[in-house]
Task: inverse folding
């Protein structure tokens, strides 16, 4: 074979400067550095004007239409004065650049570097309240967003059934654990069966609201970023995703309550939504589990051992208890 096949390549910063960044009007580029590997590859771009983020999608993670949906959403939110890290357009007014990588097409997008930094030591109650209030305004604004780009809705088929297909092979020798997971999914579906799937309860969701995806300045101005899990879904799912991560990393109850207080300053949650939070938090955990497996299978297979699955199952069981918000 002329070129050996690959499932993932790390793209050269020098190549990205010449092949991608020259398509933007960013000023004189001083440096481009590989910054972080997550669900996308992130590069920090320093120019004579300011700093930018260059994000390169992973081939296995999202399609062209997924990228288009997200970037159109962020452009829309920016135009409606929401504090998001918005995409810059190329000189010919495109939101992204297609890269023909060895593993297949990948998509590059340039964002303004979010001012400030991730909250040191995690969110304090004031920052958590600001995040909740900002998310609530985002949900309200998204009711006016419309795009033709298809996207997986964050519904139970996608969050639960697709996730089960990914997780199940890692539990094939643990029949009791697999049976428990299937029972938990059936219970979640039953609990969410009557949750309305219409506006304002159903809107575009951020998909990943947590303290690591927002920068705060010294005077607590927030900028949201990392929308690559966004999609149409229940707005309450975004609150559940915040809860799932907050409980997993140990954010205290006072800070979590401040988030909900901030959200409901802007708009009230219905009783049905509040009652759905436990089930949606379990769904968020299962979805996150599947996403993590797909990433680890490419980048860190050694992580997917028995202990990994045991830890995920234990957390799911804690989320299923009557005192699920107390730990």
Result:
């Amino acid at each position: 074979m002329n070129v050996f096949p690959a499932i993932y390549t790390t793209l050269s910063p020098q190549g990205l400067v010449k092949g991608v960044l020259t398509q933007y009007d960013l000023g004189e580029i001083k440096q481009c550095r590989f910054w972080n590997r997550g669900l996308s590859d992130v590069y920090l771009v320093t120019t004579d004007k300011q700093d930018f983020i260059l994000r390169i999608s992973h081939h296995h993670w999202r399609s062209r239409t997924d990228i288009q949906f997200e970037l159109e959403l962020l452009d829309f939110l920016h135009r409606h004065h929401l504090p998001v890290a918005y995409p810059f357009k190329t000189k010919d007014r495109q939101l992204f650049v297609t890269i023909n990588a060895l593993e297949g097409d990948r998509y590059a997008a340039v964002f303004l570097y979010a001012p400030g930094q991730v909250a040191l030591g995690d969110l304090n109650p004031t920052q958590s309240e600001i995040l909740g209030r900002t998310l609530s305004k985002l949900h309200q604004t998204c009711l006016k967003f419309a795009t033709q780009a298809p996207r997986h809705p964050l519904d139970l088929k996608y969050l639960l059934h697709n996730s089960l297909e990914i997780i199940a092979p890692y539990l094939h020798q643990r029949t009791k654990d697999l049976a428990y997971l299937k029972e938990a999914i059936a219970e979640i579906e039953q609990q969410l069966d009557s949750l309305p799937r219409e506006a304002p309860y159903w809107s575009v969701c951020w998909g990943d609201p947590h303290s690591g995806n927002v920068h705060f300045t010294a005077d607590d101005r927030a900028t949201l970023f990392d929308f690559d899990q966004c999609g149409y879904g229940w707005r309450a799912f975004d609150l559940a995703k915040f809860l799932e991560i907050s409980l997993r990393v140990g954010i205290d109850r006072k800070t979590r309550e401040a988030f909900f207080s901030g959200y409901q300053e802007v708009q009230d949650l219905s009783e049905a939504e509040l009652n759905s939070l436990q089930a949606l938090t379990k769904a968020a955990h299962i979805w996150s589990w599947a996403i993590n497996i797909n990433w680890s299978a490419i980048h860190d297979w050694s992580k997917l051992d028995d202990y990994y699955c045991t830890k995920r199952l234990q957390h799911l069981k804690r989320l299923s208890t009557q005192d699920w918000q107390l730990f």
About this structure: The chain has nine helices and nine strands. The radius of gyration is 20 Å.
